[in-house]
Amino acid sequence: MKNLVYLGFGSNLGDRKGNILKAYNLLGNRGISILKKSSFYESIPYGVKDQPNFLNSVALVETSFGPLRLLEIVKDIERELGRVKTYRWGPRVIDIDILFYDEIMLDSKVLTIPHKDLDNRCFVLIPLCELNCNLIHPRLLIPISKLLDNLDCEGKVKEID
After folding, report:
1. pLDDT at site 83
2. 58: Cα within 13 Å, side-chain hemisphere
3. What's the pTM?
4. Is 83 known to be catalytic?
5. Domain 3-160 classified CATH 3.90.1140.10?
6. 3-class state of residue 131 by DSSP
7. Domain coordinates in residue numbering, the chain
């Protein structure tokens, strides 16, 4: 069975764009098909401000893996690309988050779907809206476009080449 999943990518260390592109390739090598990718967006750090700006992107992927197995795969890819666990919201070579997984809602010790707090993150909602503004948040029952309208993203996120 194929599942549609939105993944969020972020990097603020090293070759930020290269890190995200490598992550895309590694997903493909593991049998996860990327159907659509957003543009790249530079954003100011969320949470801990004293660090380099992030580069962000969102991809729509198709996978036969369940949510927990997919989480294992993305964590393996993060480690393979050199991510080292530091502190919450700290700098990172790569971060891959499961934003939405079909229309399911999941709350476990290791994974929450939809991703917690995505409705407050311009750097997630802007590229997500680029891919599908009509996507409905299954917990909040609000389209992504409306969530984005509720935020002040001025000066926080900009599209780059």
Report:
1. 86
2. 23
3. 0.95
4. yes
5. no
6. helix
7. 3-160
Residues in the chain predicted with pLDDT less than 50, given as ranges, are: none
* pLDDT for the residue 87: 64
Q: Which of 15, 30, 79, 95 is catalytic?
A: 95
Q: Tell me the CA distances in angstroms from 116 to 2, 138, 157, 158, one per residue in order.
A: 24, 12, 20, 23
CA 99, CA 105: separation in Å to the nearest integer? 11
Q: How many CB atoms lie within 10 A of CB 157?
A: 21
Q: pLDDT by residue (tens digit) across 61-87?
A: 999 999 999 999 999 999 999 887 776
Per annotation, catalytic residue among 69, 79, 97, 102: 97
* 107 in catalytic set: no
* List 16, 92, 119, 121, catalytic entry: 92
User: Exposure of 30 by Cβ count < 10 A (0-12 exposed, 13-18 middle, 19+ buried)?
Assistant: middle
- Residue 133 contacts residue 143 (beta carbons within 8 Å): yes
- Cis check for the bond before 114: say yes or no (omega within 30 of 0): yes
Q: Tell me the CA end-to-end span of the chain in Å, nearest whole number.
A: 35
| Structure confidence at residue 47 (pLDDT) | 79
